[in-house]
Amino acid sequence: MNRTEIREQAFKLIYSLEIQxxxxxxxxxxxxxxxxQVTNKNAIEYIQDAVLGIEKNKEEIVKKIEKNLKSDWxxxxxxxxxxxxxxxxxxxxxxxxxxxxxxxxxxxxxxxxYGEETSKNFVNGILASIVKE
Length: 133
Description:
Layout: H1 3-19, H2 25-35, H3 41-56, H4 58-67, H5 80-95, H6 100-114, H7 119-132
């Protein structure tokens, strides 16, 4: 399983948690890993780290998204798919020291694959604004 596939698995779990907030989080991660037969040790560690890290830094991540939205937009207006992609990408940029060009490229690819027609430009714009800060 390569990094792109691992990131995609993390995104899918983050998205499902956006739709249905169930606790405890550790249990949801474990259920996801079992249901999707994720056996790669690096994948499991990455998914756990990403989901728990986003939860731990949720307020700061959400503030970054809100700060970079157009003035007439509210975070509630963002699709859950785009929101999950943005949370994962911001976490990787701010807390994991993954090169922002890699993160943005991967986020845009996820947006193309799972989002709406406008998702890739929206995700790219928000992340570019955050990187410029």
